[in-house]
UniProtKB/TrEMBL annotation:
This is FAD-dependent urate hydroxylase HpyO/Asp monooxygenase CreE-like FAD/NAD(P)-binding domain-containing protein. Residues 225-245 are annotated as: Disordered. The lineage of its organism: Bacteria, Bacillati, Actinomycetota, Actinomycetes, Kitasatosporales. Coiled coil: none annotated. Gene3D superfamilies: FAD/NAD(P)-binding domain. It comes from the Bacteria. Residues 5-154 form the FAD-dependent urate hydroxylase HpyO/Asp monooxygenase CreE-like FAD/NAD(P)-binding domain. It holds the Pfam family NAD_binding_9. InterPro entries: FAD/NAD-bd_sf, HpyO/CreE_NAD-binding, L-asp_N-monooxygenase_NS-form.
Length: 529
């Protein structure tokens, strides 16, 4: 059985695992997939894990299918639960998180040749061996696999702008999506939101109170544009060529959007028409022009490209009209916490006194500055190098990590935000689902013709035994993990009595070198005894 690990169980990782199962099943191939993430849930991740029903999808339901070859899949799922759901609806994000969870569960149940193992732990390091990657877990132990896909999601937001005093105070929220991060905010205190993008929009909706003023600042002070209630189909992609330089590309895009306004009545169909050609245009630009784009054009591009639901935009207008949300262009010059507030000086000369400062600046894009031990490991060992314009990892066309100069390529792939340097637009579901299918196909193709591995236990460790005995062992281990037994049952199990006949049978079936794994399992379960 081939063994593949997917590191990360958010949307990108879950859809990759689903595609691996589906494609292996269609080919009749025996594949074990280890989906590794410390989160209790499978599918939602940070993006779709919010419990707030006011946090809506930023894409209409008709375009949110998990499968590139079945565009109506999510809409049908949604309509089964909400009969009045329409293609243009912007559903709550928590509903989409439930959808992703169910997609994983149903795919797993339907597979005969593939098996999904859910490991709730964090991968902190990787090393490449002739047999494939070896992943080290934070909880101890290692997983040996034939290939691994890093679906790490967005890195933590940067905090460079916040001074030491502010960061060490209890009035700074470094990552608003961390569990419980906003619980300590008093309802009556004003708040400063640093950043005016999609994260700020979500926080403004969630933190609005009758007696609270939300101040939001960013260098440009630009808010995401809104979708139209009745969206028109995308315009035909224009004939553009990034190789002619950034200035010529800008002129071509502006002409295309102006034509969309003339012929379609709005710029949005023209903007949506750029989606299929964005990656190619980005790749055609020179390295210098890519960096110019990031400095001069990125924010304007993002607020038009990544739009918000009409209902969300209406909420923001209401908050601004009432004075409870104030948007400005500026940067934090100084933030001094005191006993009951933070005094903030902004670059536009304003002084604010707020109860808390919340970081809404978005994900850090230069992975060399991340605190993630796995990312640091693969960069330091040369398994990967930074992507173009220092965005994410450098990858080949199928998502495989490009090694550092002189290093050997590891059997490591990546998906989602980590591919931004090569693709620019790589975090929305329409892009993620296509990448998941492509990466899964590439991984399975790379494993074709390699010598099949022996049977493994549920932790990916090789067993020198028969497949039947390994299967029996896995069932026994699952039984132990499912629930803590009563004291009487545990004592009987230790005496070798019949309280757990499956485990007893597995002990006799496994060969001697498997005994260490059973003892290891018993040690992990000792907290129940």
């Amino acid at each position: 059985m081939r063994r593949v690990a997917v590191v990360g169980a958010g949307a990108a990782g879950s859809l990759t695992a689903v595609q691996l199962m589906r494609q292996a099943e269609r080919a009749g191939r025996s594949v074990g997939i280890w989906l590794i993430d410390p989160s209790e849930h499978t599918g939602p991740g940070v993006a779709y894990g919010t419990p707030d029903p006011r946090h809506l999808l930023n894409v209409p339901a008709a375009r949110m299918s998990a499968f590139p070859d079945d565009p109506g899949h999510f809409l049908r799922w949604l309509a089964d639960r909400h009969p009045h759901a329409a293609p243009g609806d912007f559903a709550p994000r928590r509903e989409y998180g439930r959808y992703l969870t169910e997609v994983v569960e149903r795919t797993t149940e339907a597979c005969r040749h593939t098996r999904l193992h859910r490991v709730r732990d964090r991968v902190v390091a990787a090393r490449e061996r002739s047999s494939g990657p070896v992943l080290r877990l934070a909880g101890g132990g290692e997983l040996r696999v034939d290939a691994a896909v890093l679906a790490l999601g967005n890195p933590a937001p940067a905090q460079d702008w916040a001074g030491t005093q502010l960061k060490e105070s209890g009035r700074f929220v470094a990552d608003p999506w961390a569990p419980g991060a906003l619980d300590a905010l008093a309802d009556e205190e004003d708040v400063l939101l640093v950043g005016t993008g999609l994260t700020m929009v979500d926080l403004a909706v969630a933190l609005a109170r009758p007696d609270r003023v939300l101040n939001a600042v960013s260098r440009h002070g630009l808010l995401p544009q809104e979708h139209l209630p009745d969206a028109a189909p995308p315009a035909e992609p224009p004939d553009l060529d990034g190789a002619h330089g950034l200035d010529a590309l800008r002129r071509g895009v502006r002409r295309h959007l102006a034509a969309s306004r003339r012929t379609r009545g709005d710029w949005r169909p023209g903007m949506d028409g750029l989606r299929p050609v964005t990656a190619a245009l980005w790749q055609q630009l020179s390295a210098a022009d890519r960096r110019r784009f990031l400095k001069e054009d990125l924010r304007t591009w993002e607020v038009h490209r990544h739009r918000i639901a009409p209902a969300t935009a209406a909420t923001l207008r209401e908050l601004r009209a009432s004075g409870r949300l104030r948007i400005g262009a500026g940067e934090v010059v100084r933030a001094v916490p005191c006993d009951d507030a933070v005094t903030v000086a902004l670059s536009d000369g304003r002084r604010l006194r707020v109860g808390a400062v919340v970081n809404c600046t978005g994900a850090r894009t230069d992975l060399r500055r991340t605190d993630d031990p796995l990312v640091r490991c693969v960069l330091e060992r040369g398994y990967a190098r930074t992507g173009p314009a220092d965005l994410g990892f450098d990858t080949s066309g199928d998502g495989r990590l490009v090694p550092a100069a002189g290093a050997t390529a590891a059997r490591l792939w990546t998906i989602g935000a980590a591919r931004r340097g090569n693709l620019l637009e790589t975090t929305a579901v329409p892009e993620i689902r296509a990448q998941a299918a492509e990466v899964a196909g590439s991984v399975l193709k790379a494993l074709t013709g390699r010598r099949a591995s022996g049977p493994t236990d549920r932790y990916g460790q090789r067993l020198s035994t028969t497949p039947e005995a390994a299967e029996l062992y896995d069932r026994a281990a699952a039984l132990l993990s499912a629930r803590p037994e009563t004291v009487r049952e545990r004592r009987a199990a230790r005496r070798g009595e019949d309280a757990l006949p499956s485990l007893s049978a597995a002990r006799h079936s496994l060969q001697r070198d498997s005994t260490d794994y059973l003892l290891s399992l018993e040690m992990r379960l000792s907290r129940w005894r």
